[in-house]
Amino acid sequence: MPVEKQADWRPSLASKSRSQIARLAAPHKHHLVGPALAARLLGIGAGSLLEGQSAGPPMPRDGTLLGALFESLVTLGVRTFAQAAEASTRHLRTKSGEHEVDLIVERADGSVLAIEVKLARSVSDADVRHLLWLRERIGADLLDAMIVTTGPAAYRRRDGIAVVPAALLGP
Asked: Which of 16, 40, 54, 145 could form a disulfide with 131 if both were Cys (CB 3.0 to 4.6 A apart)?
C-alpha cells in the first residue's frame, strides 16, 4: 500500500515565533496515499468500518481504522490545496507528547494554518485544546485554526476556532 511521509513542523527561519516552540519531536507521521484503495485492499467494507470491526488482517493502531482513513483522506485533500498555494504541509507533536496538531500548513513567510482532524459530528472544548495552545505560542504567525469534522455545517466557535465538515474542503 502506498504510504506518504508527513514531516514534523519546525517554525521556519522567517517565523517570528521560532523560539516559542523549541521542543518539538522529530518523527515523521505516515498517511495512506489512497484511503479508499487501502480499505478495499484490506477487504473492509463500509459496514465493517462503521462498526469498528475488521474482516482483514489484524492491524496495530491507535483509535479506529475509520479514524485513520478519515485523517489520511483529509490530509490528502489539504496537501493538494497547499501544494497549489506553494505551501508545505506538516504535523506538530511536542517531545513530551503533550501537544499535537494533525496538520500545519506553512506559507513561505512562516505564517501557518493549523488543522485538527476529528472523526466526529460535533466538537468539544477538549478537541480544540492543542489549537489554542499553539495560538498562545505563536500569536500572529497563526493565520487561522480549524477542526475538520464529519458534521453537517461550518461555523466558528466563540474561541475563534473554525469547524469545517470535510465535505466542504476546497480551494
From this structure: 145
